[in-house]
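Allow me, if you will, to draw on your knowledge of protein folds for a short while. I have a record of one protein: its chain in single-letter code and its fold written as discrete structure tokens. Could you please explain, in whatever detail you think fit, how the structure tokens follow from the sequence? The record follows directly beneath this note:
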Amino acid sequence: MNIIVMAMSTLTLPNTTDISKRILKPSKYRNGKGKEEIEYYSQMEPACRKILEENPDDYRFLILATEATLEEKIFRYQDETLKISAVNFFLKRMGLKNYKEENRAVVIELAEKEFLPAISKTINYIRENWDENHKLWINTQGGFRNISLVINAVISLLKLDNIEPSGVYYVNYTREKEVQDIEEQSGTYKIFQFVSGIQEFIRYGRADQLEEYYYDRGETVPEEITEMRKIAEAIQMCDMPGFEEHLLKLREQEKNGTTGKEKLLKIFWKQIREDYGVLLEESYSGLDVVEWLYRKKFYQQAITYVESKIPKEWVEVKITDEKETEDEAVAAKESEKRILFFISSQKLQEVKDLLKKNYEEDENLLLSQFAYECVAWSDITTKKGIPVASFEDIDQLRKKGFVKKYKVQKETVGYGIYYKEKDGNFSRGIYDYNMKKERMEVMDVILNCDEEEEATRIRCFVLLYYLLKNERNKYNHMIQNKVRADQETLGKVLKMFLDIAKSLQ
């Protein structure tokens, strides 16, 4: 069956009260180049006749009708005087005497200032009566000024049910032309799909709709759209290597000047380019990635990236075998990293063996364990539900004491690791562990900074890193026996982490 959706037009009548002069005059159209000229009186006729001529199966008109198109008018038509509405006149012209009994048409009332009820009824009718063998057609000829918005809403919503128009038609009416032509308009409405795809990307970083736009038109998908889609897929799967791989490919395309060349994509490429921002530059950092993920509200992916990638950028592990006498403070100043661990390879292996984490990267392992022993909190939310995010900035974090004092007052008993300040220096410390009550120095720790304020911020950075790492474990492993942060709280803590890290960067 052919389901033909249209918004009814009013009849074009002379502005006179003299019925003898209120004559509805015909126009002419042709259904394709070289075809015969055909008379029509209702604007909705040509496209409907074309559809039914080329698709002679069963059909049903789905008519969106305003109050004006349901109002009866008196006028002369051929050799008779009629009192009839625009809707019923169209049905008369299509040979339907009793459309309800014949089950050939459904009329849905449409208020010009309140579209939603009509859109809802249209969508529901099509869904309830749809069959995989049916075809959907759109006649865009009629309706009021904003009807394109209604039609686009119908098309977009039905697409969610995999129901798409087989064709969108209208009469390209020109007063100067004696015979009008019917034109296919699907391409115009697919532009709405493209724009929706751009909106989807800007909000969520996804490129599925953009790719579908080209598939639906039978066109080759631009390479940059393919890479954008793969970037989004990698994000959704928490595939950080895949994310970086396809981001690199997109960056190379941008560098080579091959992006944004397609005529429609060209209009929006500036927005896409600005959205990725520094991620399309070689100098981007892990924080830039986290910030982009944060903006898109990919919070789970953001904390996964923080946990796995950030330590490499912020921590340097310096192996000090053979009792090196290297000045650690000088070494720290020469480093671009904010946290330095000076440790022998033997001690490093002992720590890995003790913790049973030989698989973990050195930077990740040492930073996590350093945080584990030195910060006050282990969770974003406590058992009482008081979030770190309730404290608005670093000053409040410091004042509330959510970073432990670094001077340990008593020895750790049994298996344990702890940190103490070295020589009263706020930026230096000794990291020890006790094994069977025998203290063994593990490493020296230097916070690469010049003043206490910077050291405080680095400590807050460590704190928030550790909290986000633990939250990542809860989310990625679907842990149910611990309180997980809600979206708002997680977002706020991510923002705090970004602000502190960027101030240090």
Remarks:
- Confidence is low (pLDDT under 50) at residues 401-417.
